[in-house]
């Protein structure tokens, strides 16, 4: 929780995700408390994660109420007198980005990231392994095609499928489920391109360590997709995970893309706040693509 003196100071904390709750304390708060006069404070919450926000608001309200009772007890007031006395702290709650705390606002942007991950990684891995099973991949390796041309030719169709999926999911999210798209659609589309590069590179890497389609499917599902889904924050908040596991979540690209897609959809923020996640996503995709290309060259040799 961040403690601020004015509401204008709250916005950077909630938009950047550095705080999920902010307590706004008005000027003259100390004087009013000492004078045993009523005072109003504001609790502002980031409502993008509706479940966590509901729990956090309950704790925050309980803390403010408990502090008010402690002040009343310190002033020598009885429990009955405190209820009738004009002194006290009134906590006003305000939820940003998702005022109604609708769970679909949190889940559906995450579904976009999940669909791109499952479809592109699985399709790319299994399609290339199928070429390996049929023996056509070795035939392509002896053609004058360069390595990068072969890789681009194999991955480009699945990249186009990913972009079609982006358009469909965004249209369904906005028009059917009425999830607000407060940010730039062009920025969202660009970030989906970058994320698709990561997932396609992952599929290419899986194809280099698999010999059959069944092996590729099992490897993708149990060693990559399931850990990414559970450790990315899509289902469980990363803050609630054991401290030993939390450092491993930084190795998962889905973690960064979830922050990006939810930030663009619900908060309307841009690269000025999302650049750390964008940089991490770009570095992950570049590293995975280089690793996949190196392994592919070794197999071709």
What is the helical fraction, as a range of percent? Answer: 55-70%
Mean pLDDT: 83
Distance between the termini: 56 Å
Question: Main sheet: which strands, in order across?
Answer: 1-2-3-4
Largest sheet: 4 strands, mixed
Structural class: alpha/beta
Structure explained in plain terms:
This protein has helices at residues 10-16, 29-34, 50-74, 79-84, 103-134, 136-141, 147-176, 185-208, 213-231, 253-267, 271-300; strands at residues 2-4, 21-24, 39-46, 89-96. The chain is 66% helix and 8% strand. The model is unreliable at 78-86 (pLDDT under 50).
A few lines on this structure:
The protein is α/β, with parallel strands linked by helices and 301 residues long. It has helices at residues 10-16, 29-34, 50-74, 79-84, 103-134, 136-141, 147-176, 185-208, 213-231, 253-267, 271-300; strands at 2-4, 21-24, 39-46, 89-96.
Write the layout of secondary structure elements.
Layout: E1 2-4, H1 10-16, E2 21-24, H2 29-34, E3 39-46, H3 50-74, H4 79-84, E4 89-96, H5 103-134, H6 136-141, H7 147-176, H8 185-208, H9 213-231, H10 253-267, H11 271-300
Parallel strand pairs: 1-2, 3-4
Antiparallel strand pairs: 2-3
Key features of this structure:
abc type-2 transporter like fold, 301 residues, alpha/beta, single chain
